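To the wet lab folks,

You asked to see what we're planning to order before we commit. Fair enough. Below is the target structure as C-alpha cells, and below that is the sequence we designed to fit it. If anything looks off to you, flag it before the synthesis order goes out.
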C-alpha cells in the first residue's frame, strides 16, 4: 500500500510538472491544444498514425473540408 501511495504521489508530481511546462509554453505563445495533439501523435506507432491521418483525411473530404 505504501509503495502504491508513493507512486501515486510521484505521478501527481509528474502531472504537475507537465502542466507547468504547458503553462510556460502557452505564456511564450505556443498553442497547447496543438502541442497535446502532437504529443499524442508521437506516442502512436507509425502505421497507426498513418491510418488515423488517412481516416481523418477521408472524413474531411466527405465533409468538404479538404
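Sequence we intend to order:
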Amino acid at each position: 500500500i505504501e509503495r502504491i501511495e508513493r507512486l501515486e504521489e510521484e505521478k501527481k508530481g509528474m502531472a504537475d510538472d507537465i502542466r507547468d511546462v504547458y503553462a510556460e509554453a502557452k505564456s511564450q505563445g505556443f498553442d497547447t491544444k496543438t502541442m497535446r495533439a502532437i504529443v499524442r501523435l508521437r506516442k502512436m506507432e507509425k502505421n497507426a498514425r498513418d491510418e488515423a491521418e488517412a481516416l481523418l483525411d477521408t472524413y474531411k473530404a466527405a465533409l468538404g473540408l479538404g
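Structural context that might help your review: The CA atoms of residues 34 and 62 lie 23 Å apart. DSSP finds three helices and no strands in the chain.

Thanks,
Computational group
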